[in-house]
Amino acid sequence: MFVVTRGVLQGIIEDNSNDYIQRGDADAAYGHLHSFEFVFILHLMKEVMGRTDTLSQALQKKSQDILNAMELVTSTKVTLNNFRNNGWDSFIEHVTFFCNKHLIEMPDMNAPYTSTRYRPRKKDLHVTYEHYYRVDLFTSTLDKQLEELNSRFNEHSMELLSLSCSLVAKEINVDQICLLVEKYYPEDFTEQEIIQLRYQLELFNVERTKNTILSGISTISELCKSLVETRKRETYYLVNRVVRLILTLPVSTATTERGFSAMKIFKNRLRNKMSDDYLANSLVVYIEKEISETFDSEAIIDDFKDLKGRRAAL
């Protein structure tokens, strides 16, 4: 869209029918568009977002697979770190090619850096352009991304996820599951139940290899459904409790955030006095768009019409 955007801005600048404010804003935007720093940051955001988009989309799903979420977090960290340590040369080469293609002036990377073309600031002239773009922009941006991932998915969270994933491994590690319960769920199990859980896990481990339904599961949610379908939930009630506790981990969905975002659309100034029931029903239809799209509008109108007589035809 770079060429198209440039053409639109040029058209606004050259069109005398526009007032001087519009033409001035377009001229300023056109100048920023053709600056090396804009192109550099544009390509950097493309690279960063491209490497984090898969994880972002996965974490926004309504149903979350903890094992896949954990693996995606680890893979994203490794990918960003590799790009930070080894991706500069190929990245700057790509930016240089783009600038040459669109006739954008590039600075001398070995020259002292100045933040403006007219008057250098006090902190300028102490580093080169290469240092500014490589350290202050490229490396700092990637370090910030890695820092955010490490803070949101710290060692304790990753350990909890790793221990929970052993429930869907080919062979359940009984010691790991018992360690998970003792360390993270001490208030949900008594000492006697923890001892009994070990025996249930050993029995479940053997029975799972012989049961075709249980042996084919690969996610925690599938394991929970299989325990219900095979009626093993009552027999292995402690195992079922562990599974359900793991499914409530905060690596789940973004449905709640979508609900608050949708509330700003429905409960505006003109409709601020709507009842809670009406607001809740409207939000459900808005949030669950995939389900509401399957509804037949004519059938809903007919049902509403049959509730009582109407003066006007619906």
Architecture blueprint of SSEs:
Elements: H1 2-14, H2 20-33, H3 36-59, H4 66-86, H5 88-101, H6 129-152, H7 155-165, H8 174-184, H9 191-210, H10 212-215, H11 220-229, H12 237-247, H13 255-266, H14 276-287, H15 289-292, H16 297-307
Helix pairs in contact: 1-2, 3-4, 3-5, 3-6, 4-6, 8-9, 11-12, 13-14
Can you offer a commentary on this structure?
InterPro entries: AtLOH3-like, HATC_C_dom. One of its GO terms (molecular function) is protein dimerization activity. Residues 231-290 form the HAT C-terminal dimerisation domain. It holds the Pfam family Dimer_Tnp_hAT. The protein has 314 residues and is mostly helical. Helix content is 69%, strand content 0%. It contains 16 helices and no strands. Helix 4 runs antiparallel to helix 6 and helix 11 runs antiparallel to helix 12 (237-247). The radius of gyration is 29 Å and the shape is flat.
Provide the structure class: mainly alpha
Residues in helices, as a percent range:
55-70%
> What's the alpha carbon Rg, rounded to whole Å?
29 Å
Q: Report how far the terminal alpha carbons are from each other.
A: 46 Å
Q: Given the structure, what is the number of helices?
A: 16
Q: How confident is the prediction overall: mean pLDDT? A: 81
The major β-sheet equals: none
- Overall shape: flat
- Estimate what percentage of residues fall within beta strands: under 5%
Contiguous uncertain segments of 5+ residues: none
* Total number of beta strands: 0
Question: H/E series, N to C?
Answer: HHHHHHHHHHHHHHHH
